[in-house]
Amino acid sequence: MVAYNKRYVAVLIVVLSLAISYLHYSTIKEEHALHSIYSELYYIPILLGALIFGLRGAILTYLFVSIIYLPIVFTSWTSTILFDKILHVVFSGVIAFLAGFLVDRENKLRKQAEKDRYLAGVGRVSTVIVHDLKNPLTAILGFAKRIKEGKGTPATAAETIIDSAREMEKIVYDVLDFSKPANLTFAEEDMRTIVSRACNSCMAKAEGVGIKLSIHLPADPINAFIDSSHIERSLVNLLNNAIEASAKDQDVAIGVTSEKGNAVVTIKDKGTGMDKKTIENLFTPFYTKKKTGTGLGMAIAKKIIDGHHGEIHIASQPDMGTEVTIALPLHVRVS
Ligand code: ADP
Ligand code: MG
Fold it and tell me: Would you list the domain boundaries of the chain?
């Protein structure tokens, strides 16, 4: 939703009402063709009040407009148009009430729908997390038991245990990243190193499903003031999505360049791409189209990039692929 300062809207409503009154009072019906139209313009601040502030705003604006309008009613006291004027006041009251009531109801329904979706998401994600933790946990228990019983090679067992624990650590970090406000620790780092590390973490997964993961780095360092482990995690999330969206033998490419005071990272795939609805919901927590997805990867990546005063941009078309661009300011010292 567009962010606006409600105080400015309140001032706008008052100014608009006064301006309409000026037009209305400074003209007379017999000489000015637009005089009657001006009185209809009072509906604009009333509807604006309803739209932005709900029922309370609509009623307050209506009262304000009615007070300004009152002298007209009194000056018409003896004339035949008195009935018209009173009818105008009553009509605007009814419209203010209806508009405010509808806006309030709409807001209430929207909040309830958001809450329902959030709770459904929490439930689904808990199931996915438990499911994702179960496999490495079983591996750890199994291999620890083998070591205890003196079966197999302890080194191989220890390696599997470490890999499984890392897998579990990643899930725990994802959940923590999402649930806590990002606690970032900034230091000067070469973005080429971070991009390489993210790429290396995803290499095995890409090769496992027959995807060619390529990396494009410039010769000179790109030093940025960042939280390297968080940036690496958001790049890993984006690379994982690119890999998961691609089919066997397709390419996924990651690269970094320095452009106009920003480190610009691009992640390109030629996979499924996204339709408009998916792009709109991409950063909504728990939004996923995967059977075992958490829908947190993009939300976490965005949170981390926002914490660096950076920007993320998505260009995607169904069946054509996706290009994610991240711009991180090089010289901003975030505290
Ligand atoms: P998850 O990967 O757990 O589903 P994410 O937040 O990482 O959650 O992604 C949300 C959804 O956005 C995915 O389910 C997928 O539909 C879509 N998506 C993200 N990145 C891509 C991509 N590179 N190509 C196609 N779809 C994508
Ligand atoms: Mg993901």
Answer: 3-112, 187-329
Give 25-72 pLDDT, tens digit per residue.
887 766 777 777 887 888 999 999 999 999 999 999 999 999 988 887
pTM score of the predicted model: 0.63
**Is the distance from CB of 57 to CB of 50 less than 8 angstroms?**
yes
Q: Concatenated DSSP letters for 56-124?
A: HHHHHHHHHHHHHHHHHHHHTTTSTTHHHHHHHHHHHHHHHHHHHHHHHHHHHHHHHHHHHHHHHHHHH
Higher-scoring residue by pLDDT: 32, 278: 278
Write out residues with Cβ below 6 Å of ligand 1.
237, 241-242, 245, 269, 271-274, 278, 282, 287-290, 293-299, 322
Q: How far apart are CA 165 and CA 133, in angstroms?
A: 9
**Does domain 187-329 sit in CATH 3.30.565.10?**
yes
